[in-house]
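Quick start: what a row looks like.
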Amino acid sequence: MVRIDEHLQIDVLQERDRVVLRLQGELDLVGAPLLQTEIENPEIDTISTVVLDLQDLRFIDSAGLRVILAAHERSQQRGQAFALTRGSQQVQRLLSIAGVDEHLRIIDSPDELLV
């Protein structure tokens, strides 16, 4: 499934018992609700691993950061593994400044968590 608005595109790839949400564009105040909708999709409830692929994400702001943190919390409540791939320099800088990179699992590629 692909969800697109003018700021953010989300490709949802389900493989075995893992879902990868590949984000492209900008995860900001406009794009954040789109990701929130995908994270709240009941089909994701039964998946054991959730990966947010940030490799093609050009920009993130505090609204995007809040959605990522909410996605992590929701995954914990569901008993799911949760990880992020590394994003652009701007994305990594914000994650680092916010201290998120110390609390969330960050991987180099979604394939690191093949189930």
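That is the whole record. The chain has a mean pLDDT of 90. Strands lie at 2-4, 8-15, 18-27, 49-60, 81-85, 106-107.
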